[in-house]
């Protein structure tokens, strides 16, 4: 268990001059004006989403444990009615109920006593007398800053026993302790009365928040032993979550939930840092318009690989690309057979440098063979090389670059999204960002599992064409019997199970009536090759009534439409060292000059990279 920090707070005379109040939903906190504890108000969406997802996950957890508990009771009851079992007697002479494997879940119901002793044992009338009583959960927020998120979790999520709110920064923990006290959500056993002006009411919080000052890794590794594992871990770091993934993966109980934010989208989804994406996440980013989906798949791969090393596997529940970050919710379980499937759910993508056509190459192959006794044997084999071995794009003949390894499986569990949507129905008053949450989750729920999305504008641009309306492109896909959906990641995007060769034939069909001028296009240009490739599909551009969905519904908020002022990642909190007299020690390492220097270096690097890109484009042409 984490070490408990003494719970003391002193707020005489209300809010100190050095702090400013900030309110989000149920919670008002104090934030240091000197920015010594981090808070990004724009991340309310991230916090709202997390509250609703953890609530829905908790309901699912309870249903699952109750089902197991009932099954065990039934089994037990059957055994006993066969006359075999009078219950097993343990060393203390008490009857041991096998259903106690879910021991935490079972409590005797109020009313007639259900206590049984060996001597007086009679088979209990199970359904009438015993009531399922779910255990409570522990949430570990590894990087808590002001504690706003942890306090909201304690107040807004039922069945929370404790939220372990951790931060390495002493000033953040100082703010956190004050905020925990201010909201009356401190550990009850420490018996500290809520300070005057308490904004929270203890009876209104489900669990308490325990502040821990220390390195997140140390805290999470301290929870590795089975009995110490926690039900939910939340990682919300500056930039990448990569350094925290391994420790998180080992500290979550089976069936538990890992919530991960990464704000380093310039690495994950940008074209300039494939090497950094590789070193952080074990896979290279893609230089394509679908790079936001690749970003999600890179993070999922990193999570799945870390899980596999613990003999565990991940089930992505919801994976979202949001504004300047990604937020993923994955379930963690231990099941060897699922770990074996990982190679076939992992692969690389050969992405065309010009028209971005992707060719997907998994690492593993699963074969099913009928056994001699009519059973099915599952074989795990090397994958066949099925993509990109020529190094050239099938559509335009350009070079390809390699993205990944990345996760090739589903990004979301649609049933689970359905649960979240159901749980927030009519809850507009409880979530400041309800409309967007509802819109984005609805989109994610309808999203096809096929890789990758595209936009009409972009693909037509490859052939120097004026874009046909998205609904025309979608009609062509539907007319040919393909499935179509939008993607939550980019406005106006389309996902389909059609091959890219079909999508690009939609362009070629359009060219029949709207040819483009190529007189100024170089002879060896990929544009010419793309256009000249003979069509391999029949394309019907007639408007399909089901393409209506792709006419923008203005009443539904899917994407960020009107960003607030200061929208985007907030600056890191200042690290402050204090002299004995309380004055601040100037921070030499990150002086303003230093930051200016970094910006200059970054600009230089961008220039060099732009030149290299031009060279490469010339080489590819
Ligand atoms: C982006 S902020 C967290 C924001 C917070 N989750 C919220 O919703 O407002 C990241 C925090 O991680 C803390 N941090 C950075 N490295 C850490 C480490 N190794 N262990 C614990 N905390 C760390 C920083 O001090 C900072 O307060
Ligand atoms: Zn191409």
Automatic annotation (TrEMBL):
Give the Pfam families listed for this entry: TRM
Q: Where is this region: Disordered?
A: 1-21, 74-120, 568-621
Could you state a single Gene Ontology molecular function term?
tRNA (guanine(26)-N2)-dimethyltransferase activity
Q: Which residues form the signal peptide?
A: none
Q: Name one GO cellular component term.
A: nucleus
PANTHER family reported for this sequence: N 2 ,N 2 -DIMETHYLGUANOSINE TRNA METHYLTRANSFERASE, TRNA (GUANINE(26)-N(2))-DIMETHYLTRANSFERASE
**Listed name of the protein:** tRNA (guanine(26)-N(2))-dimethyltransferase
Report which gene this protein is encoded by. Answer: TRM1
């Amino acid at each position: 268990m984490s070490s408990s920090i003494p719970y003391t707070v002193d707020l005489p005379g209300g809010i100190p001059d050095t702090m400013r109040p900030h309110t989000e939903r149920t919670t008002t906190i104090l934030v240091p004006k000197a920015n010594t504890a981090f808070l990004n108000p724009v991340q309310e969406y991230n916090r709202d989403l997390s509250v609703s997802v953890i609530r829905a996950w908790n309901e699912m957890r309870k249903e699952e444990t109750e089902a197991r508990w009932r099954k065990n009771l039934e089994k037990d009851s059957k055994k006993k009615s066969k006359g075999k079992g009078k219950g097993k007697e343990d060393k203390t002479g008490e009857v041991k109920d096998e259903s106690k494997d879910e021991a935490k879940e079972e409590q005797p119901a109020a009313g007639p006593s259900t206590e049984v002793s060996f001597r007086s044992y009679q088979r209990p009338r199970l359904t009438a007398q015993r009531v399922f009583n779910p255990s409570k959960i522990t949430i570990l927020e590894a990087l808590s800053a002001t504690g706003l998120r942890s306090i909201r979790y304690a107040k807004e999520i039922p069945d929370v026993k404790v939220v372990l709110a951790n931060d390495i920064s002493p000033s953040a923990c100082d703010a956190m302790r004050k905020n925990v006290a201010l909201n009356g959500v401190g550990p009850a056993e420490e018996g500290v009365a809520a300070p005057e002006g308490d904004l929270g009411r203890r009876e209104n919080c489900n669990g308490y928040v325990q502040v821990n000052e220390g390195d997140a890794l140390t805290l999470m590794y301290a929870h590795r032993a089975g009995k110490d594992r926690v039900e939910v871990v939340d990682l919300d770091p500056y930039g990448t979550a990569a350094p925290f993934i391994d420790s998180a993966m080992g500290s979550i109980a089976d069936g538990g939930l890992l919530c991960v934010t990464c704000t380093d989208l310039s690495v994950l989804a940008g074209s300039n840092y494939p090497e950094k994406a590789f070193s952080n996440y074990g896979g290279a980013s893609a230089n394509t318009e679908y790079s936001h989906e690749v970003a999600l798949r890179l993070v999922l791969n990193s999570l799945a690989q870390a899980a596999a090393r613990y003999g565990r596997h991940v089930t992505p529940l919801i994976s979202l690309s949001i504004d300047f970050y990604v937020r993923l919710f994955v379930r963690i379980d231990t099941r060897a057979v699922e770990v074996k499937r990982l190679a076939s759910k992992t692969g690389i993508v050969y992405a065309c440098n010009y028209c971005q056509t992707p060719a997907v190459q998994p690492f593993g192959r699963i074969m099913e063979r009928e056994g001699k006794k009519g059973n099915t044997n599952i074989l795990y084999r090397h994958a066949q090389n099925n993509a990109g071995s020529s190094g050239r794009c099938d559509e335009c003949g350009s070079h390809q670059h390699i993205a990944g390894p990345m996760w090739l499986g589903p990004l979301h569990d649609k049933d689970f999204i359905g649960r979240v949507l159901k749980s927030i129905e009519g809850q507009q008053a409880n979530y400041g960002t309800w409309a967007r949450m509802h819109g984005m989750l609805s989109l994610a729920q309808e999203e096809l599992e096929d890789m990758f999305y595209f936009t009409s504008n972009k693909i037509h641009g490859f052939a120097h064409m004026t874009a046909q309306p998205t609904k025309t492109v979608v009609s062509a896909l539907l007319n040919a019997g393909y499935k179509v959906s939008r993607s939550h990641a980019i406005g106006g995007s389309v996902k389909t199970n059609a091959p890219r060769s079909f999508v690009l034939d939609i362009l070629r069909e359009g060219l029949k009536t709207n040819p483009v001028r190529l007189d100024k296009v170089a002879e060896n240009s990929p544009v010419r090759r793309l256009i000249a490739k003979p069509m391999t599909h029949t394309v019907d551009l007639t408007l399909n009534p089901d393409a209506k969905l792709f006419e923008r519904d203005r009443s539904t908020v899917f994407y960020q439409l009107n960003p607030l002022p200061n929208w985007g990642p907030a600056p890191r909190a200042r690290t402050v060292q204090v002299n004995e007299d309380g004055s601040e020690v100037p921070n030499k390492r990150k002086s303003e000059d230093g930051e200016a220097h970094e910006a200059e270096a970054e600009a230089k690097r961008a220039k060099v990279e732009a030149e290299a890109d031009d060279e490469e484009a010339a080489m590819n042409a």
